[in-house]
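Deviation from plan, reported transparently: iron/sulfur cluster complex.
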Amino acid sequence: MIEADQGLTGRRLAPGERFQFACGPDLACFNACCRDKRLPLLPYDLLRLRRALNLPSAQILEQFAELETDPISGWPALRIRLSEDGACPFVSPAGCRVYAHRPACCRVYPLARAVRPGAAGGPPQEVFLLQDAPGCLGWSEPRELSVERWIQDQGLAEYQAANNYALRLFMHPRRTGKVALNQAQTHAFISALYNLEVFRQAAAQEGFASRWGLAPERLAQARGSEEELLRLGVDWLAGVLFGGG
Ligand code: SF4
Ligand code: SF4
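Because the crystal trials were delayed, the predicted structure below was used instead.
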């Protein structure tokens, strides 16, 4: 899973390697990076955009997202729908209108994070790339950073935790290479990961937990936390697609 465009190019950072970067409205390139990009929307990104926009998921999906098929997995993939002039729909002269809830790809930029499951159930293994970012003046700023500092500065930890949880689905042991989903599976995929209002209704139906082998207390937890509802959606979808979590 890559929290940036799959087609990105750049240099892999060595463990512990530091880099020099700063970004801000005083730079001549301010906002230039918020256009002409393929901006992936991962499930937790959608959850946070709902908070920023205070709109139903269905409306955000219709108005601001486009559905594609990931060329590597064959699974649905969502991206921000750019305006006709190539700009992100959330950019304004003053900056990002959804800044506090901006997607992971925007937070991690100009880095990119690629992750894969850890060995024997250990923590996920991750690598960071310095993306090729033509025209970005931030590289010339005299501020030295570690990856850990950048993650903290950009509020990435909760995004990475959610994305790491979703790995159990995207890298499920019963998943074999590139497999397209059928219509019903695609509907389940979008509902569980990107339309929590629909999934919440499904999870509230009588017998849901026992039918899918989910612990009943998780339903109660999910009623009080959208983050937990999304984790429940990941595990339910694993059951739908693979017959078990
Ligand atoms: S182009 Fe680089 S420095 Fe300029 S606003 Fe974007 S990320 Fe910041
Ligand atoms: S969501 Fe915000 S930070 Fe990301 S591309 Fe759009 S305007 Fe820029």
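Residues 34, 39, 88, 90-91, 96, 98, 102-103, 106 surround iron/sulfur cluster (ligand 2) (CB under 6 Å). We consider this an acceptable substitute for the interim report.
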